[in-house]
């Protein structure tokens, strides 16, 4: 990726002002909703954090739709990574950090977006979208369903999970992978189904064997990378 001067970056922002403005507006809505939920409801920081977790993931679809350059996303990733680190020490955004347990998940989330944009954008935007949406919806819904309706717990190396949450993670990942890879249009139907099934199991394993929120890094990078690798192997197949 070529180095850009501040003037060139400002020109990019002006050129893509509509898309950038919509992304900023969406992030503002998500953060405001999370803060209001945290401050004015009894649901607590865990729910408000999941609002941020799931809601923020949708920015990748906006960035894809408006073809926002990778450098702008990477700059935003660096900014929000710093902001989340600051929020762990100071009450800048308690809705994303005050969850009562040790977790660097929000920081890893911001980092993973920047890494995926630098890795794949703009030549293969489907893979950052797949990784980020898997993290946002798969991991986010798995945690919510596992905590609310998890009736069959299990434990791996001291990490407590539920079968309901893990099944949610697998199914949501498969659906997202199937939709994104299907829309990409360069793979046969059987190949898409095969990759989706593999990613569902793989992402669930990454989410299961994670501590301190590191699955917010391993899940998006792992699923995007594996999806890309399998796609390269199967892209010339006719099935």
Automatic annotation (TrEMBL):
It comes from the Bacteria. PANTHER family: CTP-DEPENDENT DIACYLGLYCEROL KINASE 1 (PTHR31303). The keyword Transmembrane applies. Keywords: Membrane, Transmembrane, Transmembrane helix. It comes from Pseudocalidococcus azoricus BACA0444. The lineage of its organism: Bacteria, Bacillati, Cyanobacteriota, Cyanophyceae, Acaryochloridales. This is SEC59/DGK1/VTE5 family protein. GO terms for molecular function: ATP-dependent diacylglycerol kinase activity. InterPro entries: Dgk1-like. The chain crosses the membrane at residues 20-38, 104-121, 127-145, 166-183, 189-206.
């Amino acid at each position: 990726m070529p180095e850009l001067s501040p003037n060139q970056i400002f020109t990019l922002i002006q050129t893509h002002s509509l898309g950038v403005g919509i992304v900023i507006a969406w992030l503002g809505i998500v953060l405001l909703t999370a803060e209001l939920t945290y401050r004015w409801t009894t649901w607590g920081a865990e729910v408000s954090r999941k609002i941020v977790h799931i809601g923020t993931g949708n920015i990748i679809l906006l960035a894809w739709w408006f073809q926002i350059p990778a450098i702008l996303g990477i700059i935003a990733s660096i900014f929000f990574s710093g902001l989340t680190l600051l929020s762990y020490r100071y009450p800048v955004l308690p809705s994303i950090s005050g969850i009562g347990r040790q977790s660097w998940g929000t920081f890893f989330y911001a980092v993973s977006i920047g890494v995926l944009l630098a890795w794949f954008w703009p030549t293969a935007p489907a893979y950052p979208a797949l990784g980020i949406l898997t993290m946002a919806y798969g991991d986010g819904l798995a945690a919510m369903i596992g905590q609310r309706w998890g009736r069959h717990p299990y434990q791996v190396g001291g990490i407590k999970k539920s079968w309901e949450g893990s099944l949610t993670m697998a199914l949501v990942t498969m659906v997202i992978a199937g939709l994104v890879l299907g829309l990409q249009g360069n793979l046969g139907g059987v190949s898409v189904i095969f990759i989706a099934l593999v990613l569902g199991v793989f992402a669930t394993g990454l989410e299961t064997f994670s501590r301190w929120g590191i699955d917010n890094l391993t899940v998006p990078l792992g699923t995007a990378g594996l999806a890309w690798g399998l796609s390269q192997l199967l892209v010339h197949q006719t099935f």
